[in-house]
Amino acid sequence: MPLARLIVERAGGRSGSQDWGAFDFLSVPSPGDRVAAPFEGDVHHLTVISVHHRPVAAGSASGAAEADVVARWTSRE
Residues annotated as region Disordered (predicted)? Predict the structure, then answer.
């Protein structure tokens, strides 16, 4: 499962973006995908805006590939 950091942009006057931490995804989501993510005891619905990949060269000893999933908050259960 790909591990990606979830960056959430909140609407309604909340300033900046929030780093919600690392999440395991079944596959890296694409822009427009909907995600339901747990955060602070609730499940939040998000729409993916973009994915920022940081690949690692094959055979490199410099660590694993990483990604940031940037999503817009839409609602909470």
Answer: 58-77
Displacement of CA 34 from its chain's centroid (Å): 11
Structure tokens at 18: 């929030």
> CA 22, 10, 34, 57 torsion: positive or negative?
negative
- What are the tens digits of pLDDT across the range 42-74? 999 999 999 999 888 888 777 788 899 999 999
For residue 71, count CB atoms less than 10 angstroms from its CB and return exposed for 0-12, middle for 13-18, buried for 19 or more. buried
Q: In total, how many domains does the chain have? A: 1
- The span from the CA of 8 to the CA of 48, in Å, is 9
How many residues are recorded in the chain? 77
Q: Which domain holds residue 19?
A: 3-76
